[in-house]
Each structure stands twice: as C-alpha cells, then as structure tokens.
Design goal:
Elements lengths: L17 H22 L11 E2 L11 E4 L5 E3 L2 E3 L1 H15 L4 E6 L5 H13 L4 E4 L2 E2 L3
Parallel strand pairs: 1-7, 2-5, 5-6
Antiparallel strand pairs: 2-3, 3-4
Length: about 140
C-alpha cells in the first residue's frame, strides 16, 4: 500500500518538537522576567505625582522642574540647586523670550509653599507659561 510504513531501514522523516517548544517557553519566561528587572531604573528619583481626572496633551518642553518632598529641585531628571535653576531659567528666557514655558510638578508630599516658591523663582526670571504635570486617573 502507498501509506503503509516500509519494512526497510530508511531515514526517519519526523522531528519531535516537544523539547524545542519547552526550551523556547523557558527562554520566553526568562526574557520577560529580565526585561522587567532591567526596565526598573535604580537611578530614577521616586516622585509621587498627584492625580487628575483629565489632562491636556502638550508638547514635551525641554524645561521640566519638579519639587521633591524634601523641597529640593529636579530639572529634566537631574537634581539641581536653586542657583543653577535660576541660571537655566535665564538661559531659556534668553533663547525663547516671551514664549518660554516650563512643565512644573511637585511630589504629593511636598508642601504647597515649596511649589509656590518654584513658580515665583521661574516668574522672577521671566517664565510665565506653565503646565502642571500630574498622573491621569482612569475614569
């Protein structure tokens, strides 16, 4: 018959893929776990932003300032002193003039007074346009 196996000693034409699938699944799990571990940035500064029900979509400004709960400042992801912040604000106003804008944020635990001090610092250097950064809640 055409479909019956031959009684001769021919080559086996099938491959058992079960071990291959097992190895691929183990590799997939390893990659998923390591990706999660790699994506956590140890250098990141934990800021707990307040949440808002809605948010405006704005273009990313190159000038982002955050007040931490300790009252220190972070500009574009790096800690910065008050004097360096003032200098950066002056440079931004020098480049953009009246179009200078900043994204400002504060940790939930930061005092309201520290946030107002930040706004006053930026206004004293000529930045009057602000976007306040928050986390958007679902629903």
């Amino acid at each position: 018959m055409a479909g019956s196996p031959s009684s001769g000693s021919g080559q086996v034409a099938s491959i058992n893929v079960t071990p291959l699938v097992d190895v691929m699944l183990v590799l997939l799990v390893i990659f998923i776990v390591t990706t999660e571990m790699i994506s956590e940035d140890d250098r990141a500064i934990a800021i707990d932003l307040p949440q808002a029900a809605s948010s405006d979509a704005i273009a990313k400004s190159p000038f982002t300032v955050v007040v931490t709960k300790e009252g220190s400042y972070i500009k574009n992801g790096a800690p910065i002193s008050k004097d360096e912040l003032l200098l950066s604000a002056r440079e931004l106003v020098g480049e953009r003039g009246d179009d200078a804008e900043a994204i400002v944020a504060a940790d939930k635990a930061a005092s309201h007074e520290e946030f107002i001090k930040l706004l006053d610092l930026l206004r004293s250097e000529g930045i009057f346009r602000f976007a306040i950064q928050t986390d958007v809640t679902a629903g």
